[in-house]
Write a structure and sequence with these properties.
By secondary structure, this protein is an all-alpha fold. It has a domain at 22-125 and 155-245. 80% of the residues lie in helices and 0% in strands.
């Protein structure tokens, strides 16, 4: 009996999808939904509350993941090291998404996205080996700092939440990449378990605000849509990309997030970018284009 016959077809599907599609395509899907969902979330803040929207995001994502990832089984069958990874990733997701929304409530989305990338610079620097990649990183970093323009932001609390979100985003990259080791399917199963843990952590934090929307089906459906667009589609795409990209390559590709955030914020939230923002976006895209991933060693 072949290995393919021993492994359930549902498990083979994700692994085959990861191999069949270029990892940069999966990253592109993630980059779009990474800020499309939050832009919808911002529109819900007045009706549901910031913490209520964060609760809906995690709760709906955990509910969507549960049937096909079976988080209870993943946690039960995991060894001590893997359980520590799952609980670490779950806590990171709960805290990161909350800090992200609290920052979005006070700052433009393009600024929050730019600050989110700053923390990944250290990850991208790790393993940097060529002058071409050094140039790529320099262009991307320059573009991000042009977009940040901290002089225009006087909301200290908003900047604090954005900084915390950026630091936690580094944790998500490191822990998420660790979860993706061994294939896309295993990574998505671990992601589902971590999301269930994040829901348990966040349950007492945002439930009281979220409960105000329970009597309005349209708000509940909108909250579920935020979870689908923010924490299901992009995180699965991340796992499919992470299973094939080195950590430092994935970290540098994240430089495109401020660009996608700027475009989506302009379309959905009418946050029109300045010429300075456009210059920053152009430099970020140039950095990603120049970057060359390390060549696979001959085996």
């Amino acid at each position: 009996m072949t290995r393919e016959q021993l492994v359930p077809s549902s498990k083979l599907t994700l692994n085959r999808a990861a191999e069949a599609v270029p990892p940069y395509a999966w990253f592109g899907v993630s980059a779009i939904f990474h800020y499309l969902g939050p832009s919808f979330a911002v529109l819900l803040f007045p009706a549901v509350g910031v913490l209520g929207v964060a609760w809906f995001r995690i709760a709906s994502a955990a509910l969507i993941f549960a049937p096909f990832t079976k988080p209870w089984r993943t946690i039960r069958q995991a060894d001590a090291k893997t359980r520590l990874l799952l609980f670490g990733l779950g806590a990171c997701l709960a805290a990161m998404n909350t800090a992200f929304y609290l920052a979005l409530d006070r700052l433009p989305m393009s600024l929050v996205a730019a600050m989110e990338f700053v923390g990944t610079i250290a990850v991208a620097l790790y393993g940097l080996r060529t002058r071409r990649n050094a140039l790529a990183l320099l262009l991307a970093v320059l573009g991000v700092f042009i977009m940040i323009d901290l002089k225009g932001s006087t909301d200290a609390l908003g900047l604090l939440w954005a900084s915390l979100n950026g630091a936690l985003f580094v944790g998500y990259i490191v822990l998420g990449h660790k979860a993706a080791e061994g294939g896309a399917n295993g990574g998505v199963e671990r992601l589902g378990a971590a999301m269930a843990i994040a829901f348990v952590i966040l349950m007492p934090v945002g439930f009281s605000e979220a409960a105000r929307a329970f009597g309005a089906p349209n708000l509940v459906l909108a909250g579920i849509a935020v979870g689908l667009c923010s924490s299901v589609i992009p995180y699965i795409a991340d796992q499919l990309a992470m299973s094939r990209l080195p950590r430092q390559t994935f970290a540098l590709c994240l430089a495109i997030l401020p660009a996608t955030a700027t475009v989506i914020a302009a379309i959905v939230l009418a946050q029109i970018p300045s010429l300075q923002d456009i210059l920053g976006v152009a430099l970020v895209i140039a950095g990603v284009a120049v970057h060359a991933p390390p060549k696979a060693s001959a085996g």
